[in-house]
Design brief:
Length: 340
């Protein structure tokens, strides 16, 4: 179900299917120990996700945690329905500063918003890159390639980022448990029952040593960073109705550097330090796995003091090689001339 309200393309109302998906989360799904009252409540909500729930129904749940989880769900449900669309509620939350909402609810909202942005003409690499907006990743650098695996999936098969490091031992094209997404297995990705089981190669450029001090660099056709850039362009347009061009870059060589946005907490800290003229240590710099340059198609849509200037974006992993993108940063920190 969609709604015509919104800055860009059509925004989505929180329909029954979206709410039923939340009821299937481990925090709300029925278990063997669920009492009769919880089963009646859960079954009733699955049948009619927006039905009114009396306080006495919640009070009847035997498990205190279950009672709290359902109360959180019902409060969220009522707020997102009241907002009119998922996008409107999401914007209200992220513009308010600290989000007092279970992260899984926020991620489900982003997943619902992103899904139509990578339908249709989007290729497999773009659809996999879109998962970075709402799924935490494990990242490993293997033979110069930056490989990103879904954290939940990687941890489930054992070893977390160790699953990626296996590529060093058995050959980068033979990671049977977690295949690296590319043109040859794109059809398998499209048909997969688990769309999170493929590794995304975030490498953008490949350097080739020709010997005798000669080398050349070429851009990978299936660059995960380039695919992520295209997704982020659509994300901005969807919310702000602003056209931008985002492209990966190797470094920031800009004496007039005026604006930057970290796409995650680690990148924010690193870019802030670099902007202040500080020099992070080598370990910190190695965590920076992606840089982008964002340009507005129409500089008049930017704040007057930075109109026409590029906006630099950063992507970084933490000490445990985990990556958690915060797509809300692009919405609240863009130097827009007016609020969307």
């Amino acid at each position: 179900m969609t709604s015509s309200s919104g800055a860009g393309e059509r925004w989505q109302a929180a329909g029954d299917d979206f709410l039923r998906g939340l009821l299937a989360l481990p925090e709300l799904a029925l278990v063997d120990e669920s009492c009769a009252a919880e089963r009646r409540l859960h079954d009733g909500l699955v049948a009619e996700p927006t039905r009114a729930v009396a306080a006495v129904e919640l009070a009847a749940l035997a498990d205190v945690d279950a009672r709290d989880n359902y109360a959180t769900f019902l409060a969220f449900r009522d707020e997102v329905v009241r907002a009119g669309t998922i996008e409107a509620h999401y914007l209200g939350l992220v513009r308010g500063g600290r989000v007092a909402l279970p992260p899984v609810f926020l991620d489900r909202m982003v997943a619902a918003i992103v899904a139509p942005l990578v339908d249709g003409s989007a290729d497999a690499i773009e659809r996999r890159a879109a998962q970075l907006l709402y799924r935490a990743q494990r990242v490993a650098i293997v033979d110069g390639r930056v490989l990103s695996a879904d954290r939940e999936h990687a941890d489930a098969i054992g070893g977390g980022s160790r699953a990626l490091e296996l590529a060093r031992e058995v050959g980068i094209g033979a990671v049977a448990a977690m295949p690296i997404l590319g043109p040859t297995n794109a059809p398998a990705f499209a048909a997969a029952t688990d769309p999170h089981g493929f590794v995304l190669d975030l490498s953008h450029e490949i350097a080739n040593d020709l010997g005798h001090g000669l080398s050349f660099t070429m851009t990978r056709a299936g660059s995960g960073l380039a695919a992520l850039a295209r997704v982020l362009e659509r994300w901005i347009a969807h919310f702000h109705a602003v056209r931008t061009t985002i492209r990966p870059v190797q470094r920031i060589d800009d004496p007039a550097w005026r604006w930057h946005i970290g796409l995650d907490a680690e990148a924010t800290a690193l870019l802030n330090a670099l902007y202040r003229g500080e020099t992070p240590d080598a370990d910190e710099m190695q965590r920076l796995i992606g840089l982008f340059r964002l340009d507005f198609a129409d500089p008049r849509e930017m704040r007057a003091d930075v109109a026409g200037k590029p906006v630099y974006l950063g992507l970084a992993i933490d000490e445990e090689r985990a990556l958690k993108v915060k797509p809300q940063n692009l919405l609240v920190n863009l130097p827009l001339a007016t609020a969307a």
